[in-house]
Amino acid sequence: MEGLKSLLEDVAEQAKVYDVVDRTEALVRRRRYVRLAPAATVAFAVGVAAVIVLVMGWNAAHRNRAAGQPTWQQRADAIDGVVNYHRTAPQVVNQKEHRSGDLTYEMDPPVAGHHHSLWQNCMGDVYTSEVAEEHAVHSLEHGAVWITYRYDLPADDVRALAARVRDTPYLFMSPHSELDRRVSLQAWGYQLKVDRVDDHRIDEFIDALRMNASQEPGAACSGGVAEATGVPVNLPADRSGGVIVRPVVASTRETDIASGA
Q1: CB of 205 within 8 A of CB of 185?
Q2: Number of domains in the chain
Q3: Please, are residues 133 and 113 in contact by the beta-carbon 8 Å criterion?
């Protein structure tokens, strides 16, 4: 009886998903006969894409549960050497307020805490100078994984890390002063430190925690601070439209790595 009950619940949930798909298809058919303004067309397309993503995500999560696969938290905890600050320092992980100016963090590099209102761009961005921790922590809140490395890391190793990071959404890297290990990875509430860039645990950490550890699912990783400033940037909003204009400093990003600098 318990198995039959579970099966009926699964069928009911799947029916809900198909109902959403049917509604979306009906909207698409209606779109053929209704002339929409360009802005409305874009909004319509975004809405349809969001529905598709939600349906695909539900199906993936359902398959994982049905197959008895571990959750992302279980996969993260299974990584040898990973520190889960949700357990060891929940008071830090629960600090999520926007603050201005220089902030002090208990961990180095930080993995959570109060942060600046602007985040660091993290769409596979490769920085060759230190980024402001206050911006980086905000990126972690959005679900990014931040890879940091010591300045004395060999150039070939830096390029290997850059190749892994480049153009991967919710991932970014930068050098960091005074690391006690050669490479340190941060996600919101989690940290892993290693000495080799070919350590398999790097990929395991990224696979388990990138986007999954987000405190604000769906929050952007673009449109933030694009330069490696080392200190927090306080940029006023443009009064005409509330748009923040952020300069790009290419020399602090991956161009130096590409040129072998």
Answers
A1: yes
A2: 2
A3: no
